Amino acid sequence: MLSRTELDATLAHLDALYASTIATDPRSSQYFCKLAVIEFCGWIEEAQDLLIQESALRGAIWDPILKEKVKKNYGFHFTDKFAPLLAYGMGNKQLQNVIATVTSRGGSKLDSAISTINSFVTKRNEAAHTHSRPGGKT
């Protein structure tokens, strides 16, 4: 998995490419924008997979079924995709305990993080499931 520093460097490079082409080549700038969204969301998905694996290993239940569920999961929406896998890996009761603990220590940050992650689902899907047309439009 890419480190946060490597992700930041990748996004900064794509931003520079975007900025250098926006005035002269809108289509290329759109590619860089779409690639940045896909790179960022891919990093979130990899981080979530790692968290699921680590939480399951702590509970000694990194079983073939969970491995397959993680492998087949191509979304990162917290409520629909990530939380169910965490619940399977660590147990629903343990997940609820973790959420309660985090919430008691500043739950608004957790809610904000979940909302931000979920907001990228649509952006990621648009970037991944559209093609670029001449003139820079999807």
Question: Keyphrases for this structure?
Answer:
6 helices; elongated; 138 residues; mainly alpha
Q: What do you see in this structure?
A:
It is a single chain. The protein has 138 residues and is an all-alpha fold. Helix content is 78%, strand content 0%. It has six helices and no strands. The chain has helices at 4-21, 26-58, 64-72, 78-90, 92-104, 107-128. The protein is elongated and about 55 Å long. It starts with a helix and ends in a 10-residue tail after the last helix. The mean pLDDT is 84.
Task: Give a brief outline of the structure.
By secondary structure, the protein is mainly alpha-helical.
Low-confidence stretches: none
Radius of gyration: 18 Å
Distance between termini?
30 Å
The number of distinct β-strands equals 0
> Helix amount, in percent?
over 70%
- Beta-sheet strand percentage? under 5%
Order of helices and strands: HHHHHH
Largest sheet: none
Mean pLDDT: 84
General shape: elongated
